[in-house]
Amino acid sequence: MTHSKTSTMDLAGRWLVLGLLAIYTVYNVGPIFWLLLSSFKSRMDFFTMPPKLFFTPDFSGYQAVFGIGAAKDSASAVGVLDSLINSIIVSVAGTSLAVFFGTLAGYVCSRFNFVGKGDFMFFVLSTRMLPPVAVLVFYHLMFARLGLADTRIGLVLVSIFANVGLATWIMKGFFDGVPKEVEQIAIVNGYTRMYAFLKLVLPMVKGGIAATAGFCFIFAWNEFAFASILTTTQAKTLPVKISAASGATGIEWTQICAAGVVLIIPVLIFFYLIRKHLLMGMTFGVLGRR
Amino acid sequence: MTATNPPLAPETQAAAHAARQTQLRKRSSGRMMIFGFLSPTLAILIFMVAYPIFSLIYYSFFNFSALRQGTMKPVGFNNYKFLLSDPDLWDRFIFTGKFVFICVTLQMLIGIFVGYQMQKNFRGRDVIFTMLMMPMMLSPVVVGFLWRYMLNSEWGVINFLVSSVGFSKVDWLGQTSPALWAAAAADTWMWTPFIVLLATAAFRGIPETIYEAAEVDGASPAYRFFRITLPMSAPVLFIALILRLIDSFKQYDLFVALTGGGPGSSTETVSFSVAKTAFSYFYTGEASALAVILLVIIIGLSMILVRHLTKMGEKY
Prior knowledge:
The complex is a heterodimer of chains A (290) and B (316). With 290 residues, chain A is an all-alpha fold. In chain A, 72% of the residues lie in helices and 1% in strands. In chain A, a hairpin with a 2-residue loop joins strand 1 and strand 2. In chain A, helix 5 crosses helix 7 (152-176) and helix 10 runs antiparallel to helix 13 (253-273). By secondary structure, chain B is mainly alpha-helical. Chain B has helices spanning 10-59, 78-84, 87-118, 125-132, 140-150, 157-164, 176-204, 208-216, 221-249, 253-258, 270-279, 284-315, and strands at 62-65, 68-74. Chain B has a two-stranded antiparallel sheet with strand order 1-2.
């Protein structure tokens, strides 16, 4: 009798778990679905109650984002395409440079012991923890003085700074995974350490470099706080443009939704490419070696 | 030591000398590499972090506005005294604290629960896992606007769902307490996947044999979860916890898009308050002092995190 009792309990427990998981899935995926759906709504369909699930798709939001069609002349759409281009330039340049510097620093941190290494690593990691608003007060003044305010170069600089710490930690994790014997054998055979690094070790962490780039790109692409304060007209990135899409005519919801979808697409592509390395990157390489 | 050693033959001495030379050269080439490889990163970080932070500390002792750059009046600790005696600032801290507490609790509970389910192998696991990670990949501004749109009291889909199951509509973003919960729901939506990711990884890292042994001993599922799974994944979960503590504590972007700090100023986090003081009122000195307070708290949290990261780094 006890047997059947426990199995009923087990069954109830299993249904409870399934129910909770179903609720979480709806909570998790629902808003993304709603964003995608809404990006195709016209202004009219947007505000109807009850919300429409079926409607004729309208591309005015996307047209505004890419600056084509009828939306080209509407005031709020001006510069959205420019801001997309700004976003691409800033995140690609910032990511490449951050990964380049981070790879070098990560290698040294993985292979050498030097005075103040622990402090250096903490200093590097602290950039990930730093609240942007804390340094923003100063950047605001410094950028004005150096003529970097509202320029792409200024934002690239910020993007390098914001990601180089992450890149260093992730790359250190990947270098830790390469056996030290690789360099030892090369040096015994008369090659220099530099040769061993460039020709032997680097090719072994190719995947890691790609993953690191993916992470830095996602962060650079979504960055908002710095870009919103340090740009005014010329160098606005897409997230900043989205936040400014509320004007005299109210918030341009269709444009915001369409721009939101446009913003996710490159991230999803990167996410798919780096999915195997996801854990390693997110945990600063601590978990990845299992 | 050298005095007690017998004198070496000249050839041996020469060989030893040569060996020492190569060793020295190797060490100095290593030093060159350390210097060369670290200096760009170090230069960027000194220019972009250390220098600003020291300037920030310096500014925090002045009555100073970025709008009037010439006039800097030294005021000692007055900015700090003013801030710490300002009841508004304590409200910001209380709001931030409530927000952090709700977010971190919800995210850890849901994340561990979902992560525990995701560690099992089942069909379509990778697809579902990827789908679950999507909110984390969105820009916080988009997340803010998306939730603001869904939470709209008149035509938002959430109030539609609320009223269709028989409850009365809620003015989510127009009242203080619902706005706090709305912001927490949005943050939890965005960052629970992060905990799921780490928890799944931690749970999958526990050796199967331990579970098998427990099963032989007749341990119940609950016993296995609380006595094996949780303790063995505790270090990773702790890192996840600290990272979420720090991130939700400094949350700024989400509030800009979701509530704009309102209604009134009731949903302003400490970060938000720094930005407002610095870039709306241009009280640069005061903003600097507030930023310094924020920094001290975050550096304290980070140090706990780093200590655990290094400990884990040694273990694996």
